[in-house]
Amino acid sequence: MTEPAHVDVLIVGAGLSGIGAAHHIQAAFPGRHYAILEARTALGGTWDLFRYPGVRSDSDMQTLGYRFRPWRQATAIADGPAILSYLRETAAEAGIDRHIRYGHRVVRARWCGETARWTVEAEHEGELVRFTASFLYLCGGYYHYDAGYDPGFAGTERFRGQILHPQHWPAEFDYTGKRVVVIGSGATAVTLVPAMTDRAAHVTMLQRSPTYIVAMPSEDALATGLRRLLGDRLAYPVVRWKNIVASTLIYQLSRRRPAMVRAAIRGMVLRRLPPGYDVDTHFRPRYQPWDQRLCLAADGDLFAAIRRGRASVVTDEIEEFTETGLALRSGEELPADVVVTATGLRLLALGGIELSVDGRDVELPKTMAYKGMMLSGVPNLAFTIGYTNASWTLKADLVGEYVVRLLRYLDKHGYDSCVPVNDDPDVTERPLLDFDAGYVRRSVDQFPRAGSREPWRLGMSYVHDLLNLRYGRVDDGELRFSRRAEPA
To answer: Of 341, 368, 387, which marks where a domain is finished?
Structure first.
């Protein structure tokens, strides 16, 4: 094991959150040393990992892009390669890429109160490499990057075709002329189905139950016009706030007037599908809008593929795989040459990193999340979890700004560490992610808990968090600050 290298801030993850975090730290503290540890061999996180056809964002790039770096392309709903290029350019322009250490998978981190430092161990080329840091900033998101969710379908071993999961898409996979069945109805399936109609003989989306799917233009005409009139730098915040307000209003309306929103979405779907299409079987979800995330069909591409006869939707349950396709619970058989299991992702709390504080192991489900970004009883650590009802980056940017404020507060008052402490017996526990999606329900018990009141409640309001994280008091009575004892 190598001797530890010390940095002021150690960032884990070189994806959307990690590159943004590095920008905030570097801009605020040009004299401080930081490093980014990335388990994979390239930056980009989700946008480098997923390579399936048509992979794209389901958020507009005016809000998925960073506040500090305008998105300049005309396309507002961008594909994966465009987003990856944006991340690479952001890192290169600021020199952030020079601070990334690739192939370093962090496995454990130990806090020592006497030294006020983290000792972090990472696997690199078969060896353990150690780093020490004054502050640990976890930006690896909450997805399990090694494998997606496998429901364990019966009979897969007898299927003569090919079974793929979108998380591990083979390079140059050729599906020309093949009958493709995509299992799932989430964002990945809604993206894959129209994208694969370019070469497949036919693509079928097989869903157990429908999802809310809304059509949205891939280009923002207002953004394009304002960029011509005002230029990128001035137009960007205007368009960004327009999109924030619009998405917030839609979310609030969905929660308060769900019947109205259901009717509006149903009307939109009816207008885009052929006359007589069985909308209520295939596009009428059992749950209310925004109980789960709305799926986005850029330019209505899924509906267009159905109208052209290139794609279809089957709502049924899988009994088992057969040699030539899928036997359904209804008794029908769905023929297939390729089956894509877009059955969801797996969550992994804080990247699966083992944490300990002064020799005591940290059990995440027994901790409580402070402001949705720190852990009770765990000093000098922050993490990023984005919004489920808006762009991830909106929250990631606010967390980065808050970490800067927190570090400045420590400097100003001569403190070495800070730790959130919940000593209010009236604060009751709640799930950290109050979201009804299957991937959340399967794993939320492995995550820290949220509380019944602020600052222990993970909010989903950007405006509220903006006021709280950007302008609220750092010393709010829930953080405890301390100085390292000087040696005699």
So the answer is: 341
Q: Are residues 100 and 33 in the same domain?
A: yes
Sign of CA dihedral 49, 50, 55, 61: negative
Q: Whole-angstrom Cα distance, residue 376 to residue 451?
A: 11
Residue 33 inside a domain? The answer is yes
Residue-wise pLDDT for 127-160, tens only, equals 999 999 999 999 998 888 777 778 889 999 999 9
Q: What is d(CA 122, CA 130) in angstroms, rounded to the nearest whole number?
A: 6
Residue 14 domain boundaries: 5-145+346-482
34 φ, ψ to 5°? -140, 160
Same domain, 15 and 73: yes
- Residue 323 pairs in a beta bridge with none
When divided into structural domains, the chain yields a total of: 2
Q: How many CB atoms lie within 10 A of CB 61?
A: 25
Q: Which of 10, 22, 33, 8 is nearest to 90 (CA)?
A: 22
The single-letter DSSP state of residue 176 is T
**pLDDT, tens digit, 9 for 90 and up, residues 237-273:** 999 999 999 999 999 999 999 999 999 999 999 999 9
**Is 210 domain-assigned?**
yes
Closest CA to 46 of 142, 123, 184: 142
Confidence of residue 488 (pLDDT cuts 50, 70, 90): very low
Residue 29 has pLDDT above 60, yes or no: yes
